[in-house]
Amino acid sequence: MASDKAAALALTPVSRETEERLDCFVTLLREWQAKTNLVAPSTLPHLWTRHIADSLQLLSLAPSAKIWIDLGSGGGFPGVVLACALAETPGAKVHLVERIAKKAAFLREAIRLTGAPGAVHLADIGDTVERFAGPVDCVTARAVAPLNQLIGFAEPLVKQGAKALFLKGQDVEAELTEATKYWKIEPKLHSSRTGGQGWIVELDRIERRNASAD
């Protein structure tokens, strides 16, 4: 565990204060994991590299972003991790959207214990995005839905000037091929710093090809 944490922080360095908040978050996650499945059990020995560093790497792709919205936050990745890292940034806030009550309760406790600037929305993603008031700098999602669907969720926010950053796995090319049937996009692909077959899809513009994209 210690070596995994050291490897993660070498990939994505953070301040001592952020590290303390992340330690607090990881402790809570391990406690809750015993009764609620927040992450795949097989990934627990590599929690820091597989989940924490994987989330932290998004910050370098949107360094000036302060208001984030994380779709389907689940176990808190990347949303809670980003909030922990942004706690020293004046005006920063991460909105965590989660439709499962038990997971939303976990997210609320994580935000409370870490003192990170976050707000939890217990709601379906589509409903929240449509009702969300105020500017958003960046919209994220990880292991939530196929890219085609995520793009549909993010479209209203990106139209208002947000950047979309979606963490995807090795099937990213197939997902992009499917998505371009419905959406006009110019994706930038970033290879994950944490190795494996991970990718980050960056989108600054989304346009519907036709009405059937609904």
Explained architecture:
The protein has one domain: Vaccinia Virus protein VP39 (Rossmann fold), CATH 3.40.50. It is built from 8 helices and 9 strands. A 7-stranded mixed beta sheet has the order 3-2-1-4-5-8-7, sandwiched between helices. Strands 6-9 form a two-stranded antiparallel sheet. β7 and β8 form a beta hairpin. The protein has 214 residues and is of the alpha/beta class. α1 runs parallel beside α3 and α6 runs parallel beside α7.
Strand % is 15-25%
Helix content: 40-55%
Average pLDDT figure: 94
- Tell me about the largest β-sheet: 7 strands, mixed
Give the low-confidence spans.
none
End-to-end separation in angstroms reads 44 Å
Count of beta strands: 9
Shape summary:
globular
Alpha-beta content class: alpha/beta
* The CATH H-level homologous superfamily: Vaccinia Virus protein VP39
Arrangement of strands in the largest sheet: 3-2-1-4-5-8-7
